[in-house]
Structure formats: C-alpha cells, structure tokens
Write a structure and sequence with these properties.
This is Fanconi Anaemia group E protein C-terminal domain-containing protein. By secondary structure, this protein is mainly alpha-helical. The protein has 22 helices and no strands. Among the domains are: about 190 residues, no CATH class; about 140 residues.
C-alpha cells in the first residue's frame, strides 16, 4: 500500500462516489491536500498502482480492487487531468485495466472504456513541463524499459507499454513479430470482450438472440395474453402496480431467457404513457429481477417502440420517465435507446434528436458518451449490437443514417465537451467529407462542421479534407469554417 495508508485518501474516494462534479472537486481536493514526501498527485497514482492481491486477481493493483463504477470515475478523472501525472505511469495503469481478461459487461465495460480513453489521452497529447509546485524528478522521463536497445533501434507501437522482459531474447525480425502479436492480443481482448462468455456481476444489457426464437408453452402464453388484456384495459395506478407484480412473478418463474419473449408477447408499449411509465418504474424498482440485460430489455420493450416510429415530440410524462430511467441505467440507455434510434432506417428526426440530446446531456458521463460515439461511428457493426425486440430489427440499419438531425445531435455532443477518441474523429471527418455535396445548403450541416473544426483537437490532421468539404458548401457559416481552418 502507498505511503500514508488508505485513510488519508478516503475523502477523495468519497468525492468520486458522491460528487455531481467529481472531476473538478477531486482536482481541488488534490490541490489543497498537503503531505510530506511525495506530491499528492504522484502519491495518489502510487496508491492506485500499489500491489493489492485478491482471490480473483492474485497480481492485482489497488485500483482493480475498487468497484467497477468507481474505477471508471477515477480513470475518467485521470484522463481529464492527465497533464498533472507522470505519463508513463498513467500508461501502465491504463494497460493493467485493459489487460485484465475478466468479464467485460456492465460496469466492467465502462471501466475498460475509461481506461482506453486515458490511454488515448496520454498517447495523443503533448507533454507540458510541470510547474514548480508539481515538479517531480523525472516525471516525464522515459521508463527504463523504453531505453532498451531493442526499442531504440526499431521502435514499434511506442504508445503501447510492453516491457522488454516479455520479448524473446533475440535481435532479429522475430522481435517485431512478437511485439505485434502481443499488441494484437491486447486489442483482441478489448474488442471481443463484449462477446466473452463471462457472466456480469449485475444486470447488464446483452443483445437478445435475434435468430433464436424462444418457444413458450401454451399455458404460459395463455397467462401472458390474459395479463396483456388486463394491462391494456387498466388505468388505475394500483391496478397497474398489481399487474406489474404478476408480470415480474411470471418472468421469474419462466427463468432467464424467456422473459424477453414474455415482454414481447405482452406488448407493453401499446399502453398509455401513464401506464407505461408506472409499469417501467414498478418492474425496475425495489424487487428487480437479476436477469442478464433486464433493464435494457425493459427499455426496449416498454419505451423504445414508442419512440421508434415517433414523428411528433413525445409527451412530457413519457420524456421525463425516459430521462429518469436512463439516469439510473446509462448502459441500458446506450444499448436499448441511443443505438436503435440512431440506426433507424428513416434516420433521426427532430423529435428524436431532442430526446437523445437530453439523454446524452443528463444521463451519460462524458467518457460514456465518448465511448458510445466511438461504437456508433465504428465501421464494424458488431461494435454496436443494439438491444431491441426481433420484430423491430427490420426497422434499423447496421450503420448510421446521416440526416440533418443526426448532424445536430453530434453538434450537441461536441458542445457538451465530449472528447472523441482519434478513430471517431477520423470517422466523423470522413462522414463530413462524404456528405458535404449532398447537404451543401444545409445550415445544420454547416454548424456541425464549424463546431467540429472549433472543438475537436484531432480535426487539425484533416485540415485539407475539411477545406475541400467546406468549399462544397453554400451557407453563411462557410466563410467562418474556412477562416477557422486557415488559422489551424
């Protein structure tokens, strides 16, 4: 354990757990925290990297013994304030989290994404000399293993921390092959983790098998249809709560795997907004079922169908119920609301854009929003895997449909100071170039371009491409875009 013990750091961890503005409050706490010996930032990082073996992780560091949600917040803070910490040690910390091959669903998924965001932050930023107050000897010095002649003569993937001890003792081309192989192993772990067979420790969303049809018994179908009839006819809150308890019992008796078929047959989205809201809160409340993906399945069977074909703004009750649910279950919000609506065949419309903009602003942490954008823009459709009922699968596509409302949504995301990873910046720049001619007269498209070149640090490397795209537009913001590009 790091010098000073854990007790002195408890107020800081309490900030990460309770504060609504954890990044700022934690930074202020560290600035005001005085201690002898190491500077607080270095001491805190030493604590996170200190050995803390557990039964499940014999070689674990202290960070890995914390709850996954707390790991995500700490890693997010380190990504935002990475300039205050030794870059090499931040890389090592992120690599330890990414190298863990355990379950990658639910909170663990977001901890991994936060670690990836931290690794991107320290890999693509320029180090600045630390101030006198925060000066640590050799804080930005290369780690000893990077001074190895192997790396000095032929550096490969310098952003990826692979210790020389893991490499074969040879100087021929097999060294390069070994490095590339180990790098691919780490990438494969991160990309394929969501498909692993490990079980999550809480109810995390898992896409329903769209090709496998669950066959319910005739007796069970009869009970579900009876409940459906009563539910559609019910208006009294007490009666809806009673029916919700019967639905919960029915799903519990049928077991995990059949509950989604029951919800599909029940068609709860056909109820009034008041009934749907009460049903959602009752089924996700105190006696929630511990089924894999339960919250995402509730969202995709009760609320998502109401939005999927929406053309007008939703009722105030429906919107408030959605926001309240998504605040409590942001992972389900991404998988069962954001992805399906963003992938609609008709594309995003203005009403749905407003809904998703509020979900991003009020329900998602910036790191989670960044990860969602990365998966949404990915060329690999398997990175998305939206959670929805099989009957609604034909209503969505495998990739984003670019509409004016989608441009508005991404502009909103950028205005929320969501930092996009480099591959997402590349994809968004390519989409802007591809759609410039089609939306040459669209002010919404022009506003997204202006926001992109103003707020995205990574836009600089696409300067030539963006200048050509801007030249194909004809709006009153075109000159502003070109002016911004000329000073980059």
């Amino acid at each position: 354990m790091a010098e000073g013990g854990l007790e002195e750091w408890l107020p800081l961890f309490q900030i990460f757990l309770d504060s609504a503005a954890a990044d700022g409050d934690a930074s202020l706490w560290l600035r005001n925290h005085r201690r002898s010996g190491q500077h607080p930032t270095t001491a805190f990082l030493s604590l996170l990297l200190s050995a803390a073996p557990s039964l499940h992780l014999p070689s674990a560091i202290f960070l890995q013994t914390l709850p996954q949600s707390l790991q995500s917040r700490v890693l997010s803070f380190l990504a935002v304030h990475h300039r205050l910490f030794p870059r090499s040690r931040l890389r090592s910390l992120a690599a330890r989290v990414l190298d863990y091959s355990g379950p990658a669903l639910g909170p663990a998924f977001w901890a991994r994404k936060a670690a990836q965001h931290l690794l991107d932050s320290v890999s693509f930023s320029t180090p600045v000399p630390s101030s006198g107050e925060e000066n640590d000897d050799g804080i930005y010095a290369l780690p000893e293993w990077l001074k190895d002649p192997v790396f000095a003569s032929d550096p490969l993937l310098t952003w990826l921390p692979i210790a020389p001890g893991l490499l074969p003792k040879t100087t021929d081309r097999s060294i390069s092959i070994a490095v590339e192989t180990q790098a691919m192993d780490l990438v494969t772990d991160r990309e394929d983790a969501r498909e692993s067979s490990g079980s999550a420790t809480y109810s995390s969303p898992l896409p329903p098998p769209l090709t496998t049809k669950i066959v319910l018994s005739p007796r069970l179908i009869e009970r579900v249809l009876s409940l459906k009839e009563n539910l559609l006819a019910s208006e009294a809150p007490a009666e809806v709560i009673r029916l919700a308890e019967l639905i919960r019992q029915l799903c519990s008796e049928s077991g995990n795997g059949s509950h989604l078929a029951i919800l599909d047959l029940l068609e709860p989205w056909e109820t009034l907004d008041e009934t749907a809201s009460l049903l959602l809160s009752s089924l996700s409340g105190e006696h929630v079922l511990n089924f894999t993906g339960w919250h995402a399945h509730l969202l995709c069977s009760i609320l998502l169908p109401k939005f999927l074909f929406l053309q007008q703004p939703p009722s105030r009750l429906l919107l408030s119920s959605t926001i309240q649910f998504c605040r409590l279950h942001p992972v389900a919000a991404v998988e069962a609301l954001l992805f399906p609506l963003a992938l609609r065949k008709e594309g995003l419309n203005a009403a749905l854009c407003d809904v998703l903009a509020r979900v991003v602003k009020e329900c998602l942490h910036p790191v989670h929003a960044s990860s969602a954008c990365q998966r949404l823009l990915s060329a690999n459709a398997m990175d998305r895997n939206p959670v929805l009922l099989a009957r609604h699968r034909e209503s969505i596509r495998d990739e984003v449909v670019w509409t004016e409302s989608m441009f508005v949504l991404f502009q909103h995301i950028l205005n929320q100071k969501v930092s996009l990873p480099p591959d997402s910046v590349d994809c968004l720049a390519s989409a802007i170039d591809e759609k410039a001619s089609e939306f040459s007269g669209s002010l919404k498209f022009g506003n997204l371009m202006l926001c992109f070149v103003t707020k995205c640090d990574g836009a600089l490397k696409h300067k030539t491409l963006l200048e050509k795209a801007a030249g194909r537009t004809q709006t009153f913001v075109t000159k502003s875009i070109l002016s911004k590009l000329n000073v980059m």
